[in-house]
Design goal:
Helix content: 25-40%
Number of helices: 3
Distance between the termini: 28 Å
Number of domains: 1
CATH superfamily: RRM (RNA recognition motif) domain
Strand order of the largest sheet: 1-2-6-3
Largest sheet: 4 strands, antiparallel
CATH class: Alpha Beta
CATH topology: Alpha-Beta Plaits
Structural class: alpha+beta
CATH architecture: 2-Layer Sandwich
Shape: globular
Number of strands: 6
Strand content: 35-45%
Length: 95
């Protein structure tokens, strides 16, 4: 059950769409305390695919202003997962 708490959701941008097409890579927003081994096991169990490699990075939250009030978005961690040839994860197929 811990696998579902490690992966928060997919990151869907133009860059991640290009990575999915060209390099067979998918990007996830993950729990900040998760390591590469836990992320790999979670993806393999939830989506029933084979993972080739996992790259992780911490993303700093942006500083935003609204008039005189200054705020900061939350820091987060993302994982770029390279899948083995022949394996795919389709999030928005048929939408």
């Amino acid at each position: 059950m811990r696998e579902y708490s490690i992966l928060k959701g997919p990151v869907n941008t133009e860059k991640t769409d290009i990575q999915k097409e060209k390099s067979n890579q998918v990007t996830f927003d993950v729990e900040p305390g998760a390591n590469r081994v836990e992320i790999k096991k979670a993806v393999e169990k939830i989506f029933n695919v084979k993972v080739k490699s996992v790259r992780t990075m911490h993303v700093e939250g942006k500083v935003k202003r609204r008039g005189r009030i200054i705020g900061k978005r939350q820091d987060w961690k993302k994982a770029i997962i390279t899948l083995m040839p022949g394996h795919r994860i389709n999030f928005f197929e048929g939408v």
